[in-house]
Amino acid sequence: MPGVDGFIYPNEVELQWSVLIVLYPFLTGLVAGAFILASLERVFNVAAVRPTYRLALLTALAFLLVAPLPLQMHLGHPERSFEMYITPHTDSAMAMFGFVYLWYLMAVLVLEIWFDYRPDLVRTWQASTGLKRQLYGVLTLWSDDVSPEALRLDDRLGRIITIVGIPSAFLLHGYVGFIFGSVKANPWWSTPLMPVVFLFSAIVSGVAAVMLLYMALSRWRGGRADMVCLDTIARYLFYAFVIDFSLEMLDLIHRIYEAGESFGALDFMVKTRLFMSHIVLQIFLGTLLPILMLASAQVVRYGETARRRIYAIAGSLTLIGVLAMRWNVVIGGQLFSKSLLGYTTYKMGFATREGLLPAIIIMLLPFAILAVLLKVFPPWTDEKQMSHGHA
Amino acid sequence: MESDRRAFLLQSARYVLLTGAASVAWEHILAGAPQEAPNYRTTDHWWGMTIDIDKCIGSGNCVRACKEENDVPLEDGCFRTWVERYRVDPEHPEHPLVDSPNGGYDGFPEIDNPGGKYKTFFVPKMCNHCANSPCTQVCPVGATFDSPDGVVLIDKSRCLGCRYCVQACPYGCRYIDPRTHTADKCTLCYHRITKGLTTACAEVCPTGARQLVDFKNPADPVHEFMRTHKVHVLKPQMATGAKVYYNALDGSVR
Fold first, then answer.
1. Which of A73, A174, A327, B129 has its CA 20 to 30 A from that of A201?
2. Do A77 and B181 touch (CB under 8 A)?
3. Residue ranges per domain, chain A?
4. pLDDT for A57-93, tens place per residue?
5. What is the pLDDT of residue B44?
6. Could you tell me the CA-to-CA distances from A372 to A135, A369, B26, B140 in Å, in that order?
7. How far apart, in whole angstroms, are the C-alpha atoms of residue B76 and residue B71?
8. Taking CB atoms and an 8 Å cut-off, how many pairs form between chains A and B?
9. Predicted local distance difference test score (pLDDT) of residue B31
């Protein structure tokens, strides 16, 4: 059989989960990571990252809105997906997705954004006319109370929601890791470390994404991203990355040292079919290189321009590395037979329902949504947050 | 009166030509609906299967009968049951050579075994109808369920086609039916066994290697079989409560 080495069970010819399922943990990871960055400011009072607070929340929302789309497109019967809400099978990890998702979307993100933006929304509502006035009227829920007491209450509630939001963000992405980590039939997935590794790689990817977006948007608005803010984000990115890398290496070393039943098959796979995406893209280019770059920015006194470039390159590499990690988990976990006696190949279509083209569109969609969100909810409250040109 | 005689003659002709169970099922065959089994009580049975490796000759009869009986697509990657051929080098038992061309549907082409060096045997595979089945556990909407008589079944009208169950099965027994986009697998010929028949695969096995067994039936020969044979299940480390018991299963089988 073409593309097959050794023996695979006859029903294993086709890969069950496609590139769209690679995007699902990638997207939710960006959501969780962006939210964690936002809560750095809100809960842990890291004032330096204040300029990215609102941007991080809007980024999280934009990606969260798209996150169920690849799942929906993958289903054989998308019209039945609502059954998961009405008659969930409570033993199933996957059945909880809808509830975890809705909780995070409605009880955390939307509420937090609303409380934070309320005074702005009221101001715009009162200052505008026509259709715009209608829109902002709806967005404020026709409540124009911006008295100091009301704002104090907003702030308190916002803080409580963020505090609830942190475990929720952990839940959202740890849960995604659990979907894979709990499949005992698959030795590549089945490890209790999976949710933790997913979580930390999520934080890494989300922080990197917001950092890059902040740099790009600042430049686009004709200014430059605040350097203190960037340095702080980069420092936290570095910390999270070190934890993430340690966990991934712990998993790898544990597998190598334990050398269990499945080790031969997995070892072969990593050295052949996954060599490029695992060793080269994920570990070297996507993890070691950005960690070294970020570490060097901590110890060497680079100039500001050099630091900006380092952060931009390290951030981009990070995103490539995390996407490669999702690929290696989802696709890699299906390239070997459960008989451990053979290997198959993933053939990705292009303009098919689960091909590359829909994957690219799904990846671009959050940016389109973010553009709309930035228009409706301008995150730039204070021009002084942008430092103009003192490079 | 005329019509009564006509009905009587038709009825008699049917009984003579079709005999027994088939004539009872005739109305349902005409209606295109499965026959009901009013006298079947799920609580009286606990189904499983025994497979005797030493008896399997790799005829592929079971694979063909299963596809025919259960309307399984003939294309690649759709098997409710299949047969694997093992060749084991006694010096390297952990690296067996395995093949299963078209799941054994067309039988097996002869292969060289110079000097009888390899230990060779066939392993029929199918859903293990696990008592603690991982596929049932992961189904988000309960479309896959355990029947009270120990058979793992799928309600195709509820299946989302998320494929989590295919991932969760350690034995590779599930596939997605390309016509319905829902999960599919062996039903242990539930439509037959609830009417006192055996499964299609067991029915056609020329050597009796496959036997449908009912653990709740004290008269079932399975009790004697389990007592007198060295039986084993596939991948016992998965702790799925598999109910397909193999006699003479080689340690190299995955």
1. A73
2. yes
3. 5-379
4. 999 999 999 999 999 999 999 999 999 999 999 999 9
5. 95
6. 14, 5, 64, 34
7. 14
8. 128
9. 59
Query: Is the distance from CB of B99 to CB of B84 less than 8 angstroms?
Result: yes
Rounded to two decimals, the pTM is 0.91
* 3-state helix vs strand vs coil in chain B, percent to 5: 30, 20, 50
Token output for B149: 């008589």
Amino acid at A205: S
Nearest chain A residue (CA) to B177: A76
Would you state the structure tokens that stand for residue A350, as one six-digit string?
């292009």
Residues of chain B with confidence (pLDDT) below 50: none
For the stretch A227-281, pLDDT in tens is 999 999 999 999 999 999 999 999 999 999 999 989 998 999 999 999 999 999 9
Is the Cβ–Cβ distance between B135 and B168 less than 8 Å? yes
Residue A73 at interface with chain B, using a CB cutoff of 8 Å: no
Length of chain B: 254
Q: Beta-carbon neighbour count of residue A141 at 10 Å?
A: 10
Q: How confident is the model at residue A173 (pLDDT cuts 50, 70, 90)?
A: confident
* Contact across the interface for A17 and B139, Cβ inside 8 Å: no
SS3 content of chain A, % helix, strand, coil (to 5): 75, 0, 25
Among B78, B97, B137, the residue with its CB nearest the CB of A92 is B137
**Bridge partner residues of B123 (DSSP):** B84
Domains of chain B are 2-31 (no CATH), 45-254 (3.30.70.20)
**A100 burial class (0-12, 13-18, 19+ CB within 10 angstroms)?**
middle
Interface ipTM > 0.90: yes
CB contact A190 to B (< 8 Å): no
